[in-house]
Design a protein that fits this description.
With 419 residues, the protein is an alpha/beta fold. It is built from 14 helices and 24 strands.
Length: 419
């Protein structure tokens, strides 16, 4: 079993290159299966297990993928199977994008219900509402979702909650529907915009992504294209917070600073210096000077829920009382028990966590209870006195490429141990 071992205490210095966005890539790869003729060349795909899982799923339904470093060529000219039922499909959340993509192309799909991080109830009612509005019949049985339509007709859909997954999934299907679809109260995350841009580069007609109304004029077919995935906002946020917590000076490279604003603003509030360049940010921090702050997670452009867990580690050593209100996922505080083993002072009540800053954490044996919890434990290990051993690190590899290499290059004492 692999563990991450960290000897804490090093300040971080240097530069870190941020990879392509996980949550964009895991939607763009399924979107590429909607092309019936031609090859999609997708650059800047992150080297993470969720992407590898998706590759196997696409190949299992008949798609061909060739890789050259971080560039993928996806060829789905062959007729694809509309049933996705392998173990991999059940393993990852983003397999639900196959439903929208296959429904768009074939008007039919049957997909095993997706897994992913155990961070709360993960309903699909808004996806279903959208598919039904486009004219599909949706049934859920024995752990799978089936969608079928004679044809898809554009519709006006007002989502009851702001959902990244439902916005993208319904956008995929509506791209190949007849007529106009108007999606209201949609998610505005950078990865939603990236998927819309990718679809448009393939011949779709989508306007408004990045605002709360998206208008889609259905087209008959899509063609191959060359496209580059945006940088990962959450990976970048994780390295920003790690630098703030460890102290030192790190340039976070190949990012879109605009996407980082909610995180930069909170770090500045806590006493961290954030300098903005064209496609990078320089973080300079003295952990002795960190002061408490409050966050409430919310959809973009608010503070991202996916950065809440790493942020809680920074708060654990900031002077004073910090309060986190987690408004997206009801079970995203599981890492707090692990953090407490390292000496953090945390009280969790429902969706609120109250953190009293302590002067130091101490190394312990902890678990990565989910993906971002794993990233939080890495940061905790980096700042703790002594040795930290993190188990269940497969969660971390679902979303962070080369995490130990990247931190090692910044001066951290971190390595993987097999036993
Ligand atoms: C995406 O999940 C991300 N995953 C998550 O990142 C992220 O936490 C989340 O968006 C919010 O930003 C991927 O992109 C693969 P939602 P998703 O639909 O799409 C409720 C990570 O760490 N809801 O935006 O599944 C839901 O319960 C992962 O990288 C409904 O009520 O999230 C939640 O409270 C973890 N009905 C809220 O909406 C629905 O039909 C937002 O969920 C759908 C969602």
């Amino acid at each position: 079993m692999e563990k991450l071992i960290i000897n804490g205490g090093a300040k971080l210095h240097g530069e870190v290159d941020i990879s392509g966005a996980k949550n964009a890539a895991v939607a763009i790869l399924p979107a590429a299966i909607m092309v019936g003729e031609g090859t999609s060349i997708i650059e800047n795909i992150p080297d993470i297990d969720d992407v590898h899982c998706l590759e196997r799923i696409i190949e299992a339904i008949g798609g061909k993928i060739e890789k050259n470093g971080t560039t993928y060529s996806v060829d789905c000219t062959a007729e694809l199977k509309v049933i996705a039922d392998t173990e991999d499909v059940r393993k990852m959340r983003a397999s639900y994008y196959l439903v929208g993509a296959l429904l768009g192309r074939y008007k039919s799909a049957k997909v095993e219900l997706p897994g992913g991080c155990a961070i709360g109830v993960r309903p699909m009612d808004q996806h279903i509402k959208g598919f039904e509005a486009l004219g599909a019949k949706v049934t859920m049985d024995h752990g799978s979702i089936s969608v079928n339509a004679e044809k898809l007709i554009g519709a006006n859909i007002f989502f009851d909650v702001v959902s990244v997954g439902a916005t993208i999934n319904v956008m995929l299907a509506a791209t190949l529907a007849e007529g106009q679809t108007v999606l209201e109260n949609v998610a505005r995350e950078p990865h939603v915009v990236d998927v819309a841009n990718f679809l448009n580069t393939m011949g779709a007609d989508i306007k408004g992504a990045g605002t709360d109304v998206i208008r889609i004029n259905g087209v008959e077919k899509l063609h191959g294209c060359t496209y580059s995935v945006i940088p990962d906002q959450i990976e970048a946020g994780t390295y920003m917070i790690a630098t703030a917590a460890c102290g030192g000076r790190v340039t976070i490279k190949n990012i879109i600073p605009k996407h980082m604003e909610s995180i930069s603003a909170k770090l500045e509030e806590m006493g961290v210096l954030v300098e903005e360049l064209d496609d990078s940010l320089i973080i300079t921090s003295d952990p002795e000077k960190l002061i408490a702050c409050n966050i409430k997670t919310s959809p973009y452009p608010g503070f991202p829920t996916d950065v809440q867990q790493p942020m809680s580690v920074l708060m654990s050593i900031a002077k004073g009382r910090s309060i986190i209100n987690e408004s997206i996922w009801e079970s995203r505080f599981k890492h707090m028990d692990e953090l407490k083993k390292m000496g953090a002072s945390v009280l969790v009540e429902g969706r609120t966590a109250i953190i009293e800053g302590v002067s130091k954490l101490s190394g312990a044996n902890v678990r990565a209870t989910d993906l971002r919890a794993g990233a939080a434990m890495v940061i905790a290990g980096l700042i703790a006195d002594g040795k930290t051993e993190i188990s269940d690190i497969e969660h971390i590899y679902r979303g962070y490429p080369d995490i130990e290499k990247k931190f090692k290059a910044l001066g951290a004492d971190i390595y993987v141990e097999n036993n």
